[in-house]
Amino acid sequence: MSNLPSKSVYKQIINLTPKKVWQFMFSPDTYKIWTSVFEVTSYFKGNWGKVTEMMFLDNNGFGMINLVTDIQYPKYILLTPLGEIINGEKIYKKEYQNSFENYYLKAIKNKTEVMVETSYTKEMQEMMSQIIPLSLIRLKLYCESPNHIVPKIEIKVEINKNIENVWKYYTEEKHIVNWNFADFSWHCPKALNNLEHGAKFNFRMEAKDSSSGFDFEGIYNKIETNKLISFTLLDGKDVKIYFQKESKNKTKLNIIFEAESQNSLELQKQGWQNILNNFKKYTENQVN
Fold this sequence. Notes:
alpha+beta; Alpha-D-Glucose-1,6-Bisphosphate, Chain A, domain 4; 26% helix
């Protein structure tokens, strides 16, 4: 008797034909884009063919081994997990024996319904339930963007504090609520921050007069202490925050984020920069 949970199904409609969606999903260069939700340096090794072993990896040599049990362009790819890759070494595991991860592309007029079916161990299934829906949102975002490009915006600031304290004030919930707003008519009354790969965060942003507000939330896809925070927002857009030690008591922060389409690039840049400037002021005013 299998101890696997019942299968989970995830769907997304994309305004492209199945052939174009397939090309974006399974070509090496664009595969990296929509799978960055799993890990920011995701890529694959192998050729998409029936009874072919594929490796899905990150730049640190960690990932999964899967067998392509069946494939039909541009309709479906059926995968059977075989094990894990740890520090570049393949480790086959019986616990994945009855698992599967299947991708189906169905034509609906000039659109495509992408459907993903999974069945894994309970722990893996719980992780997939967060990551796969977000990866499909990201897939839709890029497939439907002009030339498959989403504009990026960069902001930066230098802070007169050592990098350890800058990291602490940027990531700890009790500090986030004190600086995470672009204008002093707004505030951040609540911050939930589980700073781990694959974990969620949620920062509540509200006008002080309660006239408006929203949840700024996403899933972390890479954490390197005192170096990098990378995450995907729930609208599918990626954000990367780089911490660089300039000197003993000076740290540089660079943030690169993918722009949304509702507001001008300049307005978005100014809003994010205002928050970063507010963080600088708060951090430099701390005693330690």
